[in-house]
Amino acid sequence: MDPVIHTKYVKLQWKTLIILMLGYVCYYFLRKNFSAAIPAMEAELGLSKVQLGAFLTLNGIVYGLSRMVNGVLADRFSKKILMSAGLVLSCIINLAICFSPRMNGFLHLLDAEGKATLGLVYLIGSLWVINGYVHGMAYPPIASMMAHWFRPSELATKQSIWNASHSIGAGIVIALCGWMLHRFGYSAWNLCFIVPAGIAFIGAIAMFFTLKDTPEECGLPPVEALEEAAPTSAPAPIPGSDSSVIPGSVPESSRLTGARYRKFLSRMVFRNPVIWSISLADFCVYVIRFTILEWGTTFLTQYKGFEIALAASIVAASELIGGVFGTIAAGWVTDKWFQSKTLRTSAICTLGATLCFAAFWRIPAAAHWIWSAIFIVGSAFFIYGPQALLGVSCSQYATKRASGSANGFCGIFCYAASAISGIGFGYLADHPAFGWNAVFIVAIAFGLLGSVILAAWWKAPANGYEKARQVLEEI
Predict the structure, then answer these.
(1) Is-contact 468 406, C-beta < 8 A?
(2) Are the beta carbons of 40 and 311 closer than 8 angstroms?
(3) How open is the CA angle 461-148-6, to the nearest 5 degrees?
(4) Is 191 helix (H, G, I), strand (E, B) or coil?
(5) CA Rg, the chain, in Å?
(6) What pLDDT was estimated at residue 83?
(7) Higher pLDDT pick, 35 / 287
């Protein structure tokens, strides 16, 4: 490759990576703000943990289904439009939640004591479910863009860097909401929705005008051309794929269409046992992740007795310190030590996260808060490894042609986990016969199960490009 083109390529790769990170940070501002606001909404509006857990569960299930739908769309249509539109719609929904109690004059949403009636419960719940759908318009386009912009041999490292946006976004918004609730009181819970929405709207506009879906849109050859500089670092090109495309030739979207594309999708995603195993393991991973992220501030205040500011700070630290460094470390280890075999790193990290969470649970009540912080941050450090790498695994084993669909399919399982971590854990925590101890036991059991599923694929190849070649020859 010409040195000038190569320099431009690398520059645009990093530009794309940074924009995608900032865009997803904005998405997380409008997703994890709800979790930070749970203690205040519980106190001010009288919402129960079961009701709040139901919101989280339905949001997660709809989000997972949305990822499947939008995964197929992302593989076929404009990725930046899909991603930008979803963020704008989420801003509107968060503003609607913020101002929903003010509709009390004509909808009877508050009772005489200022607590939520069933009308307000249904309204906020419905809006949060719709928010789940529009958030499914984010990750599939990102996964597809990452697979188009980065070689398979570097995808684990680069996507792990991008994946830090989960932790950055969640950490910042949880810290911001915790500070606002501490500074202005629980009655200011609506600030947890309006402030993040204002920031995210600016991000949506910037993202729309700066993103490019593929290198070809910038006049560059496809990413396979970079293999000329590293001929042994990635799988050989797929026959008939766009690896042979040069600027000005037929674009990839016209080379595998109609019935042939559907057959390819079926073999590489829906009938692929590796994708199914990844999805089941990711279900288990997300149970632990959601337990900390969705309920962290709540169980730290109610089970451990911490103040809201301290609880929010610990959860924020678990994201900004544990999540960011854990994600990047997992990606680097995968490419450096495990030859891009993401399932090996994921198995080790899932077990590490489970053990840290178990240690947090067993800390004596009289222990200093720093021990709780250490094990929560440690659990986040490990859990964000598989949370990032299993998405990379989907892209690798389904190949870049079906990466959006594979990640969408996996997303259904990931966010079906909210049925356990949402209404399931809300019920357990509220029930006098169970409480938070039962929540921790169930979460740990799922963590161990996920570790076993991933370990079963220890000897699997690093990607599915060889299988893709065979599939294309057969169809």
Answers:
(1) no
(2) no
(3) 105
(4) helix
(5) 22
(6) 94
(7) 287
Tokens for 216, please give them: 């070809």
**Do the Cβ atoms of 399 and 252 come closer than 8 Å?**
no
The whole-number pLDDT of residue 267 equals: 93
Q: What confidence score (pLDDT) does residue 251 get?
A: 41
Q: Please, what's the b/e burial string for 88-102 (b: 16 or more CB within 10 A of its CB; e: otherwise)?
A: bbbbebbbbbbebbe
Residue 346 resides in a domain: yes
> What is the SS3 assignment for 10?
helix
Where residue 140 sits, what CATH number does that domain have?
1.20.1250.20
The 3-class secondary structure across 129-157, one letter per residue, is: HHHHHHHCCCHHHHHHHHHHHCCHHHHHH
Query: What integer pLDDT is reported at residue 63 of this predicted model?
Result: 87
Write out the two tokens for 456.
């079963």
Overall number of domains in the chain: 1
pLDDT at 206 over 80: yes
pLDDT at 271 over 90: yes
Within 13 Å of residue 355, how many CA atoms lie on the same side as its CB?
8
Nearest alpha carbon to residue 462 among 242, 159, 152, 237 = 152
Q: Which of 223, 155, 216, 217 is nearest to 1 (CA)?
A: 223
Q: 254 vs 75, 261, 306, CA distance in Å?
A: 12, 10, 58
Domain that residue 24 falls in: 3-215+258-474
Region of residue 235 (left: phi > 0; alpha: psi -120 to 50; beta: else) = beta
pTM of the model: 0.72
Question: How many residues does this entry show for the chain?
Answer: 475
CA-closest candidate to residue 317, choices 381, 369, 383, 382: 381
Token pair in block for residue 43: 């106190």
Three-class DSSP category at 190? coil
Asked whether residue 44 is assigned to any structural domain, the reply reads yes
Torsion of CA 53, 58, 63, 65, to 10 degrees: 140
- Is residue 253 in a domain? no
> Alpha-carbon distance 268 to 199, whole Å?
39
* Coil, helix or strand at residue 110: strand
Residue 61 in domain = yes
